[in-house]
Amino acid sequence: MTTLQMSQEVQTRLHNRLTNGNEQLILDFDDGVGAYSKVGVCSLDVSFRFLVVDQQAVDAIYDETLASPLGPVLIKGYADNFVNEAPELNLNKFGLITLKTAAGVVDTNVEILDHPETVAAARE
Fold first, then answer.
1. Which superkingdom does the taxonomy of this entry point to (predicted)?
2. Comparing 87 with 120, which gets the higher pLDDT?
3. What is each CA distance from 31 to 43, 61, 66, 78, 118, in whole angstroms?
């Protein structure tokens, strides 16, 4: 199993969004596929975002698990080629979460969607 490394700052930021113990952390490849993605990114950029959802509401499209310091993180299995070589999350100088691997930078602004209404709005 691939381990998603996180700086302490990223761990703290994500941990603060996990409030009731019934949430699942998802690293979503925002490509327009799945219940939480209303449209794919219309550019050549790769876009990832964190979703914090109720464990009972996890879409079946998230069928692969990454280990992390905060517990299991679900991803879309077909997106693992973006994160299968030593994935790491850090804050950049602007305070944005950056995802990089041994191959290079994958995404320079990994958002966190954690409010039920925000995640629900992403579905519409």
1. Bacteria
2. 87
3. 10, 12, 19, 11, 17
Q: What is the pLDDT of residues 23-77, one digit of tens each?
A: 999 999 988 888 877 665 555 578 999 999 988 889 999 999 999 999 999 999 9
Domain ranges of the chain: 5-123
CA distance 116 to 10: 21
Strand order through the sheet with 111-113: 64-66, 73-75, 23-29, 48-54, 111-113
Range 5-123 classified under CATH 1.20.5.170: no
Checking if the pLDDT of 104 tops 70, the result is: yes
CA distance 83 to 87: 5
Per DSSP bridges, beta strands 104-107 and 97-101 are: antiparallel
